[in-house]
Design goal:
mainly alpha
Amino acid sequence: MFLAPATGIAVSLAFLRSLIGEGAGNFYRDLVMTLGLLLLPLSIVSAVLLSALGVPQTFKEWVLVESPYSGSFMLRLGPVASFEAIKLLGTNGGGFYGSNSAYPLENPSGLTNFIESVLMLLIPTSMLFAFGRVLGKRRGLSLFAVAYVTAFIIVGVSVASGVPSLNNLIEPRLGYPGTLVFNTVALLSNAGATASSLLAMKPSAIAAFLTTMFIQAVPGADGVGLLYLLVYVFIIIFIGSLMVGKTPRFVNIPISPRVVKLSTVVFLIHPAIILVPTSIALVLRQYTAFSNSLDPLTYTMVLYEYTSAAANNGSGYLGSLGNTAFWNLSTAIVMLLGRYLPILLFLLIADDISKAKGSVAEEPVETQGLLFVIFSVVMILILAALTFFPFLVIGPLLMGG
């Protein structure tokens, strides 16, 4: 859980260096510095804070609890606070307990719910400001605005149809609004830590969750979210430059045809490794492991499973019902491809950019400011809709609500 986010951050640092004409740097040095100076100190502070707020932190494995209502029972313990800290900071997802952050010992109160939500967004958001530190504050703020304006538009969809009444799949201590906030943040950051069963979420919320995983850049996972956003920017610059008939440039760097092609491949890999396995699972009727018929909910469960795996997210409907050879192997392959193929392509893009000779020339499409933010948000939503909207229609949108 430490190495995965550190790897993403190290790759993003190599990419940022390429934008200012430097070499990729030393991966091992970046990895060790990220672990020792960023993730470990933040995890220690976060674990102490969560422990003070009621999350267990002990090497004791079991404790006997006496209850006046249900008698005595054994409660599983462990270093939960330490686990939670890096699970959230590293956008790893998962949980110490099977019910994840819905479990009271992982997320005891509304306050811990808020703090854990902040931890998931902390490093992905910081990477946007790191971009600004390298290439100018105004550019960083513009990229931050692109990510979060897009996120707020998508989140608006999840609350547009109102808040349902409390049901038995929602923890009363959090309520639907608190649960929705946590789940939305977990999906925005690709952390996948959920505070309820997804069956408790309205179809409009599920559609929003899927959209954030389709985009992966609002703000996305540690390090990798920034890279996905930059890939969107390169595609947007190329489209905008075609409109005005000029050579695409970014920060005085000419965007070569190879960079555009690689960026397009990065963009297309994601839907391919989601939709192809989804089609195979449906044709082979593997959904019979958890459903007797193929309806919009069943289709959404299958689509969500592979979307979550491709986005290295980890949330899902299936739970133990997906513990079959087919689902375990197929999602493992999708996770592997979804993680490392884009990283390889990001490094190839960085290598091409670092070799490009910059010159003082006006950008045909300005990459900072209000116009850039509006144009980018619209284009990201259009690209996502053109790719995935039909699959949302026959899934969560057909479920209604």
